[in-house]
Amino acid sequence: MNKENNTGEDWFNRLMKYESIRSLPDHLKQYIVDQDYDAYTPIDHAVWRYVLRQSRNFLKDHAHEIYLEGLTKTGLKIDTIPSIEEMNQILSKIGWAAVPVNGFIPPAAFMEFQAYKVLVIAADMRQLHHIEYTPSPDIIHEAAGHAPIIADPEYAEYLRRFGEVGSKAMSSKKDYELYEAIRKLSILKELPDADPKEIEAAEKDVVLKQENLGEPSEMALISRLHWWTVEYGLVGDLKNPKLYGAGLLSSIGESVSCLKDDVAKIPYGLDTAGYAFDITTKQPQLFVTPDFEHLIHVLESFALTMAFKVGGIEGLDKAVECETTSTAVYSSGLQVSGTFTRVIADDKRRPVYIKTTGPSDLSFADKELEGHDKAYHADGFSSPVGLLKDAPAPIEVLTGAQLKERGIIEGREVELVFESGVVVRGMLDKMTRRDGRLILLTFSGCKVTYNGEVLFDPSWGTYDMAVGEKIVSVFAGAADKSAFEQPSSVSKTRTIKVAYTDEMLALHMLYRKVRDYRETDPNPTILREVWYELKNRFPSDWLLPLEILEIVEKENLFPGMARDIKEELVELSVKREAFSKLIKDGLNLIYNT
Q1: Fold of 8-300
Q2: Numbers of helices and strands, H then E, in the chain
Q3: pLDDT digits (tens, 9 = 90+) for 503-517
């Protein structure tokens, strides 16, 4: 866990009382940060309240039918930013949980959290100038966007299954470089005083990395499916769809604009993976699924094309291309984890020998084999794949008698000749079995050759030979993630906390007084005092006048002041075009609902 605030271990321990969070592997727990609820400003709470009120008003007619029910079922309040702890008290009742994180996290980690039925919630809050749409994930996007729809059991299962499949997707170094570039750009764009030249340079870097991504990896492709469903999905009739994607539900600007005719609506299917996306701007097209069952159908169809389902040379080639830790699973069940650097194939494109370089380990059923950790296999691992020449069955299923017939006996010199031409010669010291299958042969004084090439020399030490006719699966990461510690993928680029001027802190105080009026101190004279100070010191602020106007109109207070506020807002909407729609929508909510 990252202790970014001062609540430290107490915060983490409180999260651990929830089963879904306790079950997370350590490599995911490193992304969790403290929410630091007290860091939210009065303006932050006002922004949340404005967005949630506008969203509820619009989305009651345009979102999937579960949306309004989901707001309640997931513990979201309209007036205040949610506490992750309070959300977990309610989410736990439907088998889910939530944890705060720092901005964008890598797609593989995001998806794996989903596999454990845990929502990741960016703890930061969008700035007022990005109230309609933020290029950076924030608590509105994560909590008010993602959470409500998981109240639908079918969609919740889609999220969980997507997490399982997505976390196995093979990625590349270029994928991670693009992720870092996008993360940096989103952070810069959210800063109120960001240097335009720095933003321009970051935008160019994103474009450059996108253009040089090459053939998209599995992770790039499945990230597109995730984007066009979980983030920006529409459901129902193609001509009159409803919103369910978090990016749409959390954007009071795009939730409206996305339904207009200039945004193309395309039936959702496997070919959707061919559409790239730009995470920092509005989308030119969206995809419509007829129902959530169809989402699962498409996901399972895509999964059939992935290395973890296909295995073989296709999967191994992807492992070599990704240049990061991957796992190859033999038909015996033995799992080899490491950075794959070479695959030898026969003329029928069947793998006959595999090799990793650098720290590697061996596992079975996702549990590391004793004595076969990264320290033992520090320089890599290599082994043949395939059938023995003239053998009646794959080695892993040969009986004790059949092994003896072929001279495969512990404590004896053994020669194994594979159909591929790989030859293994040495003293067989040990045979390892799991679940009735032979998975590993350990040799001393061993030599391995293939077509005259020496693949392993006796001087290199003990030779552990994986047993298996085929490579049945290849997937990203290590099999036993708790044993195979990898370098942290938590980005070193952190979201930046805004330093407020004395002038802004004074504005915060005015927002605080109006919030206090609503929650604890309904003293009407406070509203009058706040309004006159606001009018004189902060004439360009539009959100707090709306909050004051809402109260005085609802409670029939100060009719003259109400007219004054309304006139000022109308005038401001004319002078400042950027605020025009926001002000009009706010006034509409006060007077027409």
Answers
A1: Phenylalanine Hydroxylase (1.10.800)
A2: 23, 17
A3: 999 999 999 999 999
